[in-house]
Design a protein that fits this description.
Mean pLDDT: 89
CATH architecture of the largest domain: 2-Layer Sandwich
Strand content: 15-25%
Strand order of the largest sheet: 1-5-6-11-10-9-7-8
Number of helices: 17
Helix content: 40-55%
Radius of gyration: 28 Å
Shape: elongated
Number of strands: 16
RNA sequence: GUGGCCAUAGCUCAAUGGUAGAGCCCCAGAUUGUGGUUCUGGCUGUUGCGGGUUCGAGUCCCGUUGGCCACCCCA
């Protein structure tokens, strides 16, 4: 039996690496004053059908449950967030700064960096429409990357703004409906992939020329001051070098209204590592107008991030170090004489209650074998119980130094030896 | 969803159509109670699965499942 396609087993090393990623996510988010929350893994399919746009619905991992409900494993968190916030917003002071770490699903053919399941960090600020909030979220994203050991040489965050496109087009005399705007942005999104003649043709169908579009792309700051404001705010924080204005970045989800951004690895091998934007209307839509709050946020997945970590030596070394420490022991007990097993277990329990990580042989084994096990489990020291009793022989594995200590002094001496 | 490449031991991979192998891992030893190295020995296969061609198929053909890559799409 194998796991289902696109689903992963996490062996101990994989789990430790995952814990490392989660630990950095939590640590940096808390540093920014974000609090953690979570929602259900299974939602009514309806939640995604109307609000996220048709793109995501085609890839839902959905089914009918035993109560004849149409349900879907969550493909993203934002619709759930919008629902929860609409229902509970009065209980919280604004702005909300919330983050969440959870598993998300999609039903599609898997490929490198893209499975049917992944873990994702979501960070959102709700109830603040200022550009300061935009900058705060971007800074958070950058510091998250920095916490893994990445620098401005490893990745770049490209920033665009849907409102900027609308304003530019209006300035040029075009007034697009929401649907036409969506159509237009889809073409812009593919400018790099398609031949200029084809893009031009598609744009002409909307009454816009490729020349016009390129004019904006080459000098966006001249047409939209918000880019300058944001860039200045990032420079003040010393993070300006991480961001690049790139109007052609348009995210696929329909609900974005303002700034949108995507982080890319500069090695060019990977897809977007993270992305997000402002969605000022979504909460209002999902609550049928009962609650209207501006919001913005982003998400970053563990799969692509993990691959990027493997690509960058400094980041890879941090993970390896963490993985090694994740389950390394403090002490391994050597039971050299089986008649000392009870004495050893009594001290084992005592030491565990003090918080030390200790393991020991469950069945009788040769002393040499026990030392091998101690080494393999990463123990810093061993405590040997045998003919020396009532004294215990403590050995520091790194230095091979052995000292004889009275058993009643073991807790104190262990503390002394391992605290340094 | 479409197309191309691939599938051999737990892992990485060998094997002109002619008796399936190596390295690593794991386990056990190298004289009585001391670890990373070394040495010796041991374990492991319906060659992904199902058909077909052939005297004979890991090898050739068809199907199927799974993986990788590209396209589509994108959290």
């Amino acid at each position: 039996m194998q796991p289902l396609p696109g689903f992963r087993d996490f062996l101990p090393d994989d789990c430790a690496a995952r814990n490392f990623i989660f630990a950095r996510w939590r640590e940096v988010c808390r540093r920014y004053g974000f609090v953690e929350w979570d929602g259900p893994v299974l939602e009514p399919t309806e939640l995604y059908k109307k609000k996220s746009g048709p793109e995501i619905v085609a890839q839902l991992f959905n089914f009918t449950d035993k109560g004849d409900r149409e349900v879907a494993l969550r493909p993203e968190l934002t619709p759930t967030l919008a629902r929860v916030v609409a229902a509970h917003e009065r209980e919280f002071r604004k702005p909300l700064k919330w983050f969440s770490i959870g598993q998300f699903f999609r039903y599609e053919k898997q490929q490198r960096g893209r499975l049917r399941e992944h873990f994702q960090l979501n960070c959102d600020i709700i109830g603040d429409s200022s550009e300061e909030a935009d900058a705060e979220v971007l800074a958070l994203m950058i510091d998250l990357f920095r916490s893994f050991g990445f620098t401005e040489n490893d990745l770049r965050i490209y920033i665009s703004h849907r409102g900027a496109w609308a304003a530019f087009l209006q300035h040029q005399g075009h007034n697009f409906s929401a649907e036409r705007m969506q159509e237009f942005l889809a073409i812009v999104d593919k400018l790099d992939a398609l031949k200029p003649e084809i893009s031009d043709e598609k744009l002409k169908a909307l009454g816009v020329s490729l020349d016009l579009v390129n004019r904006f792309i080459s000098m966006p700051e001249n047409y939209f001051d918000g880019f300058n404001t944001l860039a200045d705010k990032m420079k003040v924080r010393g993070l300006g070098r991480f961001i690049t204005i790139r109007p052609a970045i348009v995210r696929g989800l329909a609900y974005y209204t303002g700034f949108v951004f995507e982080a890319f690895s500069l090695s060019g091998k990977l897809r977007a590592i993270a992305g997000g934007g402002r969605y000022d209307n979504l909460i209002g839509q999902l609550s049928d107008g009962a609650v209207s709050l501006p919001a913005l946020g982003f998400a970053m997945g563990d799969v692509v991030l993990g691959e990027m970590i493997q690509d960058v030596p400094a980041a890879r070394a941090r993970v390896a170090d963490f993985v090694r420490r994740e389950y390394a022991l403090d002490i391994y007990l050597i039971i050299a004489k089986e008649e000392r097993r009870s004495d050893a277990l009594r001290q084992l329990q005592q030491l565990r209650e003090s918080g030390w990580r200790i393991d020991y042989p469950l069945t009788p084994a040769k002393v040499g074998k026990q030392f091998q096990t101690a080494e393999a489990l990463g123990a810093k020291a061993t405590l040997l119980y045998g003919d020396e009793w009532p004294a215990v022989k403590m050995k520091t594995l790194a230095t091979r130094e052995e000292i004889l200590i009275p058993n009643e002094e073991v807790p104190a001496r262990v503390k002394q030896a391992l605290s340094s």
